[in-house]
Design brief:
The complex is a heterodimer. By secondary structure, chain A is α+β, with helices and mostly antiparallel strands. In chain A, the strands form six sheets. A four-stranded antiparallel β-sheet of chain A has the order 1-8-3-6. In chain A, helix 16 packs parallel to helix 18. Chain B has a single domain (14-237), classed as Nucleotidyltransferase, domain 5 (2-Layer Sandwich), CATH 3.30.420. The chains are: A alpha+beta, B alpha/beta. The A-B interface holds A 1, 5-8, 11, 30-39, 42, 58-60, 100-103, 106, 189-192, 202-204 and B 78-83, 87, 101-102, 105, 107-110, 112-113, 200-203, 205-206, 209, 211-212, 215, 218-219, 222-223, 226-227. Strand 1 of chain A pairs antiparallel with strand 3 of chain B.
């Protein structure tokens, strides 16, 4: 029996951290595994025990408890445990019991250590222990590299295969049907040799050649060959192939070295797919910089609107390149702000110069440099105090409506809450804005808190920055001295909790359109942004971006040692899950949304998702404790609301 | 009479039989095999070395069909080390029919280069010796191996084993329809390997591969003993 057919190998290859291992290592693990069955309620190990094996759950469920008896983790199929203490050579700090009848795989310490020595990713996964989330986040950035990405990542579908006796015409029809530019040609065989593989039909096949659309053109049409000629007579028999676990870089070199455009990817001897040079080139191009410069060259709203599909492409490209959420956020914010700037320039061309100086500010995610691809409009206008409503407002209203409609044409939905400069309430002189902000901080009633959450993330994108800066300073000066406001903001930030159940299980939507999914924005990134904003307000930070706010918070003693880093990684991770989900939506021609199905993400990602939600959960608990409602204020608040 | 009481409902007297065989067989390979197979019936299962054992055959009749592959998975109640497992494809003496090919995934080309069972018999017996075989449905493995050995060495080898199907049947034999199915010559569906495993929350495997099935059987026995018996249970209550 060939090792690749072993059931254990197949299972391991689907779960982290084994899924990324080289084929030889999967083979070794599958041959050296030891297996044992445990009925529900069995003890796997007790605290203090010396652990000499890494354990893997093939089926069933395991509960890991702290010495105190408190639940530490609940693990399921594909999870590993018992390895952190084993690798550090110390007695187990936890005990483990089966919750269900379970089949457990054991791997000896020496084997795991050898694997750690040879495979950095594996070693980081298992050795990092509690810091796995960080490892994962950093890995996102390395993954993009051509050197480390395995070529199987570029294979999008199984190859189309025909027997060499197939007539050319039939083969060409197959190419059309599967809209592919190449076919593999195979022959049945009974002899085993270096090119034989076992098909899904359990028969043995020989890979004998390849036929590309170019062959059809240069050899068939050009030479006037009869379309009924068997494929075997015109195919190219000089086969250059690559193994599935080679790097993309190696695949590219192989193609260039051999001057071929199509490269069959083999797992052992079995063809997995075909990559083309263009797949690799596509993997490496589309620049967001180019896009931004293009925005400023557009002479009309229509021209800008036409660019919006390129925005999506460049977003997907950034994601696939392994950019982090900061880079992606900044790129999207830059694109959005450039569109607004260009719209205001176009608006001023049409309406004439503004009667008094003004500043156009963006709010919310765009101000934080954290918009995603489906961001709404959130903006406002600050006008110089020389503003006279009756004579000047008509101009600014027209300008604001021009921007609003222009942005809508470019794919930014109008704000449902009406937080746009076209709303007269949000088109005011600086003095009025100051009184708004003061009001909101002095009297934190629900409506004011809602506004604070949106308007207290603000940046000037066009016009006079001197009209926006005073507002940012006002917040930074006053907010730290408004305990009631901070307490109310904190309470508000706890309204949306992470979707974790008692046993660290995901709590998904129970019904409706988004059944079995988690709204990663509402239950993840948004509560984290809110939470960080409260701390940032408390420490007088003028930063808008969540990471920059965390930098400012880190200069204070607000958070316990290490919490800042955890929040940073949790935010990065949750943002990336959301971003990747949206990129995938775009790639599959769906409207990008925030509804992530935990069942659909990889086991490794699911694992880290839980960890990130845990971080949010703990940080929320601390927030409530850190900004308590002042006792007299509590009474006053209640008195008023009744 | 060479065989112990085959058809009787009573369990055969294995110690006497094995003692007798160890004395009487002539071939040295078999002599040693039986010598080491003399397991104490009171020995606790938890202290007994075992071997998951499965054969794929060209059909179900040991008289007409042949062995095509052998899977052996040595194990104990507390561990199944895959490193020690072995698998052989052997050439059947009779023609491989196309239906059986689709049944156990062993193809003509694989068998073409395969050795005769006689060439690997020494290895097979040396992996098995001293270990109590565990099979699912003993009426295939026992007669087929016995027949194959007899054909090659001139004398047969019947030995005690644990049949996970019969352990499962003990818990399910009250139901009348099971008997009806059995009368029709079919093993009752509910105690087939796959279905039996599911009752213990064991994962579903792709069946009909001798090594996978031998492993499946070993895992199933661990589950049965730990669920319904105990590591102290003596062999005599389990073997047949």
């Amino acid at each position: 029996m060939s090792i690749e057919q072993l059931e254990s190998r197949e299972h391991l290859s689907q779960f982290a951290p084994f899924e990324d291992l080289a084929d030889e290592w999967l083979d070794r693990l599958a041959t050296e595994v030891e297996i044992q069955y445990f009925p529900a309620g069995s003890t796997l190990f007790e605290t203090g025990e010396e652990l000499t094996e890494l354990r893997y759950i093939r089926s069933g469920a395991v509960e890991v408890k702290r010495r105190s008896g408190h639940l530490f983790n609940r693990l399921e199929e594909g999870d590993i445990f018992g390895y952190v203490d084993m690798l550090r050579g110390r007695p187990a700090r936890y005990s483990a019991h089966t919750l269900e009848d379970s089949l457990i795989y054991f791997f000896p310490k020496a084997l795991i250590q050898e694997l750690c020595d040879e495979d950095d990713d594996f070693s980081e996964f298992v050795e990092a222990g509690g810091r796995r989330l960080k490892t994962r986040v950093e890995q996102y950035h390395r993954e993009s590299s051509l050197l480390t990405t395995r070529v199987r990542r570029l294979v999008v579908r199984r190859p189309v295969m025909v027997e060499s006796t197939t007539p050319l015409q039939t083969a060409a029809q197959q190419m059309r049907e599967y809209s592919t530019t190449s076919l593999l040609v195979i022959d049945p065989t009974t002899d085993m040799d270096a090119t034989t593989f076992e098909g899904q039909d359990e028969h043995y096949w020989h890979l004998v050649g390849m036929l590309t659309d170019r062959d059809c053109c240069t050899r068939v049409v050009a030479d006037g060959i009869d379309p009924q000629t068997p494929v075997g007579e015109v195919m190219s028999t000089r086969l250059v192939t690559v193994q599935s676990d080679e790097s993309v870089y190696e695949a590219m070199l192989t193609m260039l070295r051999n001057n071929v455009q199509h490269l069959p990817v083999l797992y052992r001897r079995r063809p997995m797919g075909i990559v083309q040079l263009s797949d690799i080139v596509r993997y490496e191009t589309h620049s967001s910089l180019y896009l931004v410069s293009n925005i400023y060259h557009q002479a009309s709203v229509d021209g800008l609107a036409r660019l919006s599909s390129e925005v999506r492409q460049s977003f997907v490209r950034l994601v696939n390149d392994g950019a982090n959420s900061e880079m992606i956020g900044r790129a999207l914010a830059t694109i959005g702000r450039s569109i607004i700037r260009r719209l205001l320039e176009l608006g001023e061309e049409e309406l004439g110069a503004p009667p008094v100086p003004y500043a156009f500010m963006v709010l919310g995610s765009m101000a934080r440099d954290e918009p995603t691809i489906n961001a709404d409009q959130d903006h406002a206008l600050v006008v110089d105090d020389a503003f006279d409503f009756d004579t000047h407002d008509r101009y600014f209203e027209q300008l604001a409506v021009f921007v609003r409609e222009g942005m809508a044409a470019c794919g930014y939905a109008r704000c449902k809450g009406g937080i746009m400069a076209s709303n007269p309430r949000w088109r005011q002189p600086l003095s009025v804005w100051k009184s708004y902000f003061n009001d909101w901080m002095d009297d934190p009633k629900p409506e004011h808190l809602l506004h604070s959450n949106i308007f207290f993330d603000l940046t000037c994108v066009y016009g006079e920055n001197r009209l926006v800066e005073p507002l940012q300073e006002l917040i930074a000066e006053r907010a730290p001295h408004r305990p009631l406001f901070l307490a109310a903001m904190a309470r508000n930030a706890l309204g949306r909790t992470p979707p974790l159940g008692f046993f660290r299980t995901f709590v998904v939507e129970k019904d409706g359109e988004h059944k079995n999914s988690i709204n990663i924005k509402r239950r993840g990134t948004a509560p984290l942004v809110d939470l960080v904003r409260v701390h940032a307000l408390a420490c007088g930070s003028k930063a808008q971006n969540t990471f920059l706010r965390l930098d400012d918070i880190n200069k204070t003693q607000l958070l316990a040692e290490g919490v800042n880093d955890k929040l940073r990684y949790a935010f990065e991770f949750l943002s990336m899950v959301r971003i990747r989900h949206q990129a995938m939506d775009i790639e599959t021609d769906q409207e990008p949304d925030n509804n992530v199905m935990p069942d659909k993400v990889s086991s490794r990602e699911r694992h880290h998702l839980k960890e990130a939600f845990e971080v949010l959960n703990n940080a929320q608990r601390f927030l409530a404790f850190r900004y308590p409602m002042p006792p007299d204020a509590e009474r006053k608040r209640k008195g008023r609301s009744t | 009479m060479r065989l112990p009481h085959w058809k009787s409902r009573q369990r055969p007297n294995w110690p006497d039989y094995l003692e007798d065989r160890a004395k009487r067989v002539r071939h040295p390979m078999l002599k040693q095999f039986f010598h080491e197979m003399r397991l104490d019936p009171d020995r606790p299962i938890g202290e007994t070395p075992m071997v998951g054992f499965d054969l794929e055959t060209t059909g179900l009749d040991a008289g007409r069909h042949d062995i095509v592959s052998i899977g052996l998975v040595p194990f104990t109640l507390s561990r199944i080390p895959m490193k020690e497992s072995r698998y052989w494809v052997v050439a059947p003496r009779r023609q491989l029919s196309n239906e059986s090919v689709t049944f156990h995934h062993i193809t003509h080309s694989e068998i073409d280069g395969a050795p005769d069972l006689g060439d690997v018999l020494g290895e097979v017996l040396s992996v098995m010796k001293g270990r109590l075989p565990v099979v699912h449905y003993r009426h295939v493995e026992r007669p087929f191996l016995d027949g194959a050995i007899r054909e090659r060495l001139g004398e047969g080898a019947v030995f005690p084993l644990i049949d996970t199907m019969s352990l499962e049947a003990r818990r399910h034999r009250r139901r009348r329809w099971v008997w009806i199915r059995r009368l029709m010559g079919r093993p009752p569906a509910s105690i087939r390997l796959h279905e039996s495993r599911l009752r213990y929350n064991l994962p579903a495997y792709q069946g009909h591969h001798a090594l996978t099935d031998a492993l499946s059987t070993a895992e199933l026995l661990q589950a049965q003993v730990l669920t319904h018996y105990s590591p102290e249970t003596p062999l005599k209550t389990l073997w047949s």
